[in-house]
Amino acid sequence: MNLKTPLKDVLHTTNDHIAVLGTMGLHTVEDFLFYLPRAHEDLSSIQTIAQSPLNEKVTIRGSIGALKIVRIRGGKYLISTMFRDTSDEAVEVIWFNQPHIKRMLPENSDVVLTGKIIEKSYKLQMQSPQFEIAGNRPLVHAGRLVAVYPQHDVINTKWLREKMVLVKDAIDLIAETLPAELLADEKLLSKKDAVRALHFPEKPEDVEDARQRMAFEEMFNVQTAALERKKMWQGEHQKRLQIPMNAELIKLFFASLKFKPTNSQKIAIYEILKDMEKDTAMSRLLEGDVGSGKTLVAVAVMATAIKAGGQCALMVPTEVLARQHAENVSRLLLTFHSYLEEQGMHDFIRLPHVALLTGSTPSPDARAIKIGLVNGTIDIVIGTHALIEEPVQFKDVKLVIVDEQHRFGVAQRARLKDKGNPHFLAMTATPIPRTLALTAYGDHDLSVLLEKPGNRKIIQTKVVAPDDRKTVELFIDHQISEGRQIFVVCPLITGSEAEEIKDVKSVEQETKRLKESFPHRRIATLHGRMLPKEKEDVLREFKAKEFDILVSTSVIEVGIDIPNSTIMIIEGAERFGLAQLHQFRGRVGRSDHQSHCFLFTTTVEQSKSPRLRAMEKYDSGFQLAEIDLKLRGPGEIFGFRQSGLPEFQFAQMFQPEFVLRARRAAERMMGVEGARAS
Hints:
Layout: H1 15-23, H2 29-33, E1 39-42, E2 57-64, E3 68-72, E4 76-85, E5 90-96, H3 101-104, E6 110-120, E7 123-127, E8 130-133, E9 145-148, H4 157-166, H5 180-186, H6 191-199, H7 204-233, H8 247-255, H9 263-276, E10 283-288, H10 294-307, E11 311-315, H11 319-342, E12 354-357, H12 363-375, E13 380-383, E14 397-403, H13 410-418, E15 423-428, H14 434-440, E16 445-449, E17 460-464, H15 469-481, E18 485-489, H16 495-500, H17 507-517, E19 523-526, H18 532-543, E20 549-552, E21 565-570, H19 578-585, E22 596-600, H20 610-617, H21 621-632, H22 634-638, H23 647-653, H24 656-670
Parallel strand pairs: 5-7, 10-15, 10-16, 11-13, 11-14, 12-13, 14-15, 17-22, 18-20, 18-21, 19-20, 21-22
Antiparallel strand pairs: 1-9, 2-4, 2-6, 3-4, 4-5, 6-7, 6-8
Helix pairs in contact: 6-7, 7-23, 7-24, 9-10, 10-11, 14-24, 19-21
């Protein structure tokens, strides 16, 4: 037997079972050995009947008497016997509808039973316990720490344990996959010892050491791959990328603002500009909570690149967001240039030419923009990811900024190398715990905006049970009469979808209901099935106050900026994660008016959820992301879960100290400078 031996040659089982193993991705001995347990159960203590507490799982050893088959109602069978332990105490044992057990357990067999002892009709009884004949060989299912495997409808843990014994000797053939130096430095088990300890542990400490080893390798590989991507991105030295930090420009830019930038913004700008002084391409992630001022940071560093004679590109996931960024960036740069003129410094930096290029840009305009990018008359281009497609060329692009990095694929980023491998800044409004940022975006250095500029009021947030809807709607109507506008977010688009999920609201149904409840108010709808032009028209009209209420799906999650909207209503709030709820909430609170967020639940019980109540307590997206991480796990939140990765391994991987340990080990093995984020 070797690791490549087919399972059908060693497991002594049916073709049906072999076929099921194949559907589970298990074909060879090696596949089978790496089907790791999800947990372990301590059944090492073997008790007597007298010692065993009632209604708790126990393991007892003794002998069984004759097995009797009794027919019961429904054409089913009951098998019963008397079991006596080593102290001659007795308990009745029964199995329901398992006639094969009579063949498997000869009378007077020495067996070990695992199950619960109950009291029934004044006598002790065990119903359907797990059993194992105790012979000269070591016990598999009791008398030790036993592995608990992920189960299949056909293949259960007991079957897997028994078959794993048949391939146990092949564990010694497992090759090591980590350098010996790393094993010594990190005090890790060898791979074969870790696999053996997981399947056949002798003590709890063995299991913990094995889990550490397997999880460490997984995270080490993640971090090594991230550093390799970073090394590839920064492997090329280009003198043209060296942009000197211009402290005077940043000082004048800050002076042109109507508010004082936060310390976080100042630090982030400094970190980015320090990267841009190098002759290798920057690779940095700017992570900021809703309203933390990422756009301001982007404009400051773009102005620096333009001052040095370069071009900049800002890419976003949607046309609506592209148009909004174009307006905000142009406004900030115009304000800056006007301030310079007031100071008699109009020659300090010319007013940059900003262009908007999206899929709906008319062909003649798009052609003119592309010509302007090639000849250098356009300094900043803002648009969707179409900007990196082949026809778009630049004279000298020095900086590319991507908003909402998670929607920007590796292949798309690779295309930037063909555009001159510029400095790369990713931005995200989704607060990510540092541990996950190092994992998901490990090829970037990290800058974090922790504060919010200006004196914006905290959004008052309230979880609302269905019975309290009328009170909230009276408040909403009053706010509309005061000139404010309302967002309503629903999980679904149409009523037909909602019929499949009881009591979940759709945009279609809620719009109809609101028109009946608020006949004197103007109501619009927005959802992902609308054409880009339709969505853009609705948002423009809503921003122009032509509607009082906008009923939408999650398409408004990111980047919509309508200061006059002061109330956010989220229907079926229990269906969204905390990070997404926080993003929705961030669509309001963008003016001096007090804003409110109401989280409507489908049932009264859901309104008591500690997870939703956290929205009432915390205004920080980072705190909410940490809570979401603990409650839901990183896989559910950020899509990191890999198929086949055991739960214990997955959970261990994302402990903060564990991620940093793997990151530093990867840096040592690759001989690279430690990332500042670590």
